Amino acid sequence: MELGRAGLAWAAALLLAALGAQAAAAGDFDPYRILGVGRSSSQADIKKAYKRLAREWHPDKNKDPGAEDKFIQISKAYEILSNEEKRANFDRYGDAGESQGYSPHQHRQFHHFHEGFYFDESFFHFPFNSERRDTSDEKYLLHFSHYINEIVPDSFKKPYLIKITSDWCFSCIHIEPVWKEVAQELEALGAGIGVVHAGYERRLAHHLGAHSTPSLLGLINGKITFFHNAVVRENLRQFMENLLPGNLIEKITDKNYVRFLSNWKKENKPHVLLFDHMPVVPLLYKLTAFAYRDYLSFGYVYVGLRGTEELSRQYNINVYTPTMMVFKEHIDRPADVVQAREMKKQLIDDFLSQNKFLTVARLTSQRLFQELCPVKKSHRQRKHCVVLLTGEGDKFAAAYDAFLTFAVANTKDTLKFVHIYNDRQPEFADTLLMDEEKYKGKSSVVILERRNNAGKVVYKALEEAWQGSKEDNFILLDLLDQLRTDPSLLSLETVLADLNDELAPMFLIRWLYSMLDYISDCWDSLFHSNWREMMPLLSLLFSALFILFGTVIVQAFSDSSDTRDSPPSEKEENAAKTEKNDATFGKESNRMPKKGFVEVTELTDINYNSNLVRLRPGHMNVVLILSNSTKTMLLQKFALEVYTFTGSSSLHFSFLSLDKHREWLEYLLEFAQDAAPIPNQYDKHFLERDYTGYVLALNGHKKYFCLFKPHRSGDEGGTLALCEEYNSLVPVEARGKSSCSPGSRSIKNKLHKLSFWMERLLEGSLQRFYIPSWPALD
């Protein structure tokens, strides 16, 4: 008994000591002290202190061993003090209301076990703590900002293999040896490696879609793909190869090597051939092709294959040693060669980085122009571009060949030789060639230096067209020699617009590729995603099916009930038609006339503000343009056309005298894209242009108008009918003498089909012409 009591007492003392250590660790956590602010500090001061400390202690910038722990403390402290409720709880009780009292020491010594109990891991000697694991993962650890700002953009140059891990993860320990071996191997080949600790970086783990540990995923071109097979070396290598596009490398034989190398002009890229005795393209070469795909085209020659003997013999290939060749403008001889028994990534990168461009590359995009002709950073780093402005076809071939020969003989680090097609980049060529007629149909050479990224350049063009003669070579060589000692020789200055991207795929092709990627993602998610990821898609699918089948079922029951009813009699049909007409009339009653006349007011200086400028939102003023001679006839026709629309309270009707306010109308019509050309004030026909019959629908609040231009064709049977309608509505004593005379029909016919235009106005389908502000009427 005494021994049992002693054991219980010892266990209780041990538990109290552990709880006391935990409480002491929690009590040591003071967010005010960590951020260096007072208890009365404002949120602005707290935020300012947090930003300063976060920049100072961020693990990516601070190499101190305790930087990560300090950064976690700073983040936890800011999380408490930036939340008013948590801050109030800490001020009252010394606790934020949840387990916020985190400290690195506590994390190292105790791990959460069940509810509120912590045990010293060193007591049990379990190898679950991250400190006891292999520390090789530390250099691969990713943070959220690092992933978004650096890893995702870098995934367009190389694929990444990322592992999601956590503490107390048995499976993570199980795959550790395989992961370590594959990570070292793939990193040496040029792939990227990343590790995310789900305990510290929950936000990043959730962003990646990893809901369990361990998880392995690949990242390429910003797209995430999960690994779903057994974690063995062969499967991981194959997963990395499957991430890469399948068209990176072309298999080359004696039959297609000439066609492959001759594509340099079309693709505007050097072409690379790798000769090796491996039947399968090495992963190192695939990763290299992906990294340089924007600059180079790659081909692979399996020297042990029948059908490559001529190729190996022509270029004198050693079949026992891997060989890499770069071909530029000449396909009969390589521009550069490298051989090595073991091709290493560093060797390949050094070799390809020096051969990324053709000897005389064609400027096909702004990005290429910026890389070939960089902006001058200092006087010692001056780089000049010698540009041949030429055309396509055999007519310009001799001039181009002579320029290429000159470039090969005079290549230097401070000089770049490029060419451009005038018809594909006309704006660029026109800016540099001041005398276009002099160089029309000929090639010309311009030496330029970029001064800033906004397009500013200084340049000098050869006085005569480039023919490629010896004299032209001497003149250009002499000019380049003078330029080395006298930079002021480039006396002209201009601003170049951005180049067109000649090799960009068409919009339809880009859209098709995007659709294929989306379908591929959906297909992959359908078979491999867990239920949590599939819930939004399944919810959307079942909702659509429910709506579809619900509509079909309701329609089926409705049709069956209609067929069961007996056919209606003729009397009932007439009654139904009457009810339908009444219903239609009721729908349109809000637009039916409420008065027996049309109220049209003249738009003058007095009522201009109230009828237009300060018109209530949603209201429009329909204005008829007329003159003193056409006033009576156009107003009569206007009233007949718009009479059915006077029931709308949001429409107002006015007329404007062309004799008084022609300048105001001319100013408005300048904003109408399809309006008739507006003459200048010196045009002798300025006052003769006839705008009578124009109708403007003005929205004063939103500052736009819609335009009706007069109908100038024949009567088409419409004017006579309208005259008869007008005579039936208007008493004889109130009619004008020439209201429907033949002379007035041509004037009234200007407003033919105005009612249809009014219908489109109410539908909102008319083109709108916006103006910055309403001009003064005077």
TrEMBL record:
GO biological processes: autophagy
Subcellular location: Endoplasmic reticulum membrane
Signal peptide positions (record): 1-26
Keyword Oxidoreductase: no
Region (Disordered): 559-590
Keyword terms of this UniProt record: Autophagy, Endoplasmic reticulum, Glycoprotein, Membrane, Signal, Transmembrane, Transmembrane helix
Gene3D superfamilies xref list: DnaJ domain (1.10.287.110), Glutaredoxin (3.40.30.10)
Keyword Endoplasmic reticulum listed: yes
Extent of Basic and acidic residues compositional bias: 561-582
SUPFAM superfamilies: Chaperone J-domain, Thioredoxin-like
GO cellular component, one term: endoplasmic reticulum membrane
UniProt-listed Pfam families: DnaJ (PF00226), Thioredoxin (PF00085)
Residues annotated as domain J: 30-94
Membrane disposition: Single-pass type IV membrane protein
Task of the protein: Plays an important role in regulating the size of autophagosomes during the formation process.
PANTHER family linked to this entry: DNAJ HOMOLOG SUBFAMILY C MEMBER 16
Protein name: DnaJ homolog subfamily C member 16
